[in-house]
User: Fold these one by one.
Assistant:
Number 1:
Amino acid sequence: MTYAELNRLQERISIAEYLCHRLRQLNIRTIFGLPGEFNMPLLDKIYETDGMRWAGNANELNSAYACDGYSRMKGLGCLVTTFGVGELSVLTGVAGSYAEHVGILHIIGMPPTSAQTKQLLLHHTLGNGDYNVFHRIASDIACHTQILNDSEFCFQHVDTCIEMAWNEQKPVYLGIPVNRVHMMVESSYLNKPLNLDTINFKSDTNDHDTVVLNEETSHQYDEIINMILKKIYTSERPVIVVDAGVIRHQITKEAEDFIKLTKFPSFVTPMGKGSVNENVPNFDGVFVGSLSRPNVKELVDNSDCVIVLGCLLAEFSTSTFHFYYKTKSKNKILIYPKSVKIKNLPFADYKIEIIMEKLLQRYDPSKTVRKFSHIDTINVPRQTLSNDYLLKQEWVWHEFSKWFKPGDVIVTEVGSSAFGINQIKFPPRAQSISQPLWGSSGYSIGACLGVLFAIDELKQESGLNTNLNLPNGETINLKDLQDRRVILFVGDGAFQISMQELSTMVRWNLTPYIFLLNNAGYSVDRFMNHKSNLSKFDIQPWNYLNIFDIFGALNFETRKIVTLGDLREMISDETFKIDDKIRLVEIILPSTDIPPELLEKLIRERQQSKVIKESPRYFDTPQSSEVSEMEDITPGDSKHI
Ligand SMILES: Cc1ncc(C[n+]2csc(CCOP(=O)(O)OP(=O)(O)O)c2C)c(N)n1
Ligand SMILES: [Mg+2]
């Protein structure tokens, strides 16, 4: 039976319905955004399509973050806003998806075409009759844009938008004038599968095969693989670094297989964290350029063949590009999502999925016979600590590493948590969601909501398929999926920016763990700019734990953690391990405390790096001796050690 027959669709359906079915075929079942006059008929179609749901966010910016988080779990997210006011509110979120290679379909409900043609001064316009202005603004942060006007080809336009967002892993802008929502198309067009590069989710239509290459293309790939293998076989100290492109382009399984097959020392960048199993014997930790732990830095710096999979090579993955410059003279094999660079020689139009598939087929382990030594990746605090110590970041991350479970999805925020999480080893199948390149404060709460919806769907889907393919390339079974918890670490500063979205979590009975790091303001900034007026990094101290009353939650738990003993008691509590309710845990930390790895390395970096010395204020970090002189406005009475 065809898709249209299976779903008993009318012969002709509206383009809005067509769009909903196309998303449903990809198992994209939750749509984010806020209603507005110009998108209302479209939202009605979402409600009318079986299996689709409208999340209904508390504000637009958060909806864009949620869409981003959802997409990172499922390969694509869909966001609907209204003309002007709504669409402009999501720009920071959409730009973040652009920067971080996250596929998003952003649909904008536009005023009717007649109003546009007559240039009427409708509400939500700039009052100058320009109806293209917002489209123009958005076009620089989209890989493709389309306004749906043409009734004959509108279904093809919709297909192209979805294919572009999925294949390019970037935002796509799709404007639908409110009077165009009901353009009619043949439902049978839905029977033809979309043209997607990779599809790791079983669609309702059918499974897609691996891409078949023509002879010439196949030959070109063989040539490049020969070059890569030659470099690898002739090197003595190869290492693998996994960057963000691996998870975004859904080749985590291939990356992990390559790591296992080669046995080379392997690392992830902060943006690549969570994309490969950190428990394979040759996983050696997080590579953060010169901010890396000394033994990590030494291994990568002394390698004569650095293979970077899924390159993005952003600032924090390279620590201000140290890695990039230092390795200039070595055999660098940089595999980008759509190109390859071998020793600085670029080769365009090579898809990472195919490169990895061929590398796995052709790599011969017997040609690299050397045994590699590996390093201890676990960061253990230097002292044994008693329970009455007040908390410091260093200990927080160490304690949490004992509490994480396989499959956990850990969302962290720009600020200290995104750095802290890199200090610890993840359990198998744990996934990390953060935004280290774009770094928009407040992202994590919205993203956490998106992840919660995605996990909720993945659990339901697992009821249909006993074995389910996840976006990280793994196949897991029903039981594993039921156990996946969603854990958010968010700074108090970021919390004050985006906390409305907790209300959406409550509304949908979603059950995340939210760990709020209360250090009385913007600590990383306070630390880096210690010579300027510190009060600008302060925030109003809220009664955070009362928030669920405001949002009308019924099933929730709150805790305040002040000492190491409090933390240890919480993580050993068996009932706390089960994510059966929404939880907010306020963790009290000193105001100038940031993860020590970051602190110490930043100081050293600043002393050594020419790039940083040339950059005046941002990297104005204190010298070690100055740290103790910094004002400490720790919430609570007692002194931290
Ligand atoms: C949208 C946005 N506005 C401002 C900033 C600058 N900024 C960087 S971190 C930060 C807040 C950090 O405070 P918090 O979330 O409490 O994290 P902490 O540094 O205390 O760990 C801000 C405002 C930003 N990154 N994004
Ligand atoms: Mg803070």
Number 2:
Amino acid sequence: MINYQRDNQRSKTYRSEAVINRSDHNHRFTTNDQCQEYANEILSSNYIFKIYEKHNKLHNLQAIRVIPNKSKRTSSNYSQSRKILLSQTPYHMSKLALLHEIAHQIHYDLTVSDQIRSYLKLTIKEMAEAEDIEYPEFHGREFNHIFIHLVKRFLGKEAKRALAAEFKKNKVKYTVSKALF
Ligand SMILES: [Zn+2]
């Protein structure tokens, strides 16, 4: 079975990020193509390549499709495997919001992807006997560690400092004992 850990830092992370989203550090896009290009630029960067290489996860480094989320009911972005569903609002179609979703994909690729892949190849009987997979907290310290490093690299040191200050204010944990990035 896959055990999902409680997502304790979700709203605190969103609250912290909102301040940076509305600041001059962020940049908004107007079309889905621009968002896709930005995601491509991040994922094909040497910086990301090096990180996957360091963790022996290059086999997980694949393109991510950015798809407009036309749902009228919700206004938030979603990450699924190799897909980002992007709400069509200025807030969500921005560099910062995209970096958040890309951080989810990287977090998944570096921490659980391989285990889940092999789990899904098992027979039902083997699944029942297999050890549980611990799916890390969606917005836990590891995720925010990756996120803030992406912000530093792609939005700059000032943006990173501003986000770190918000994290501190809202008591969001983002440091890890063993650096992923
Ligand atoms: Zn998220």
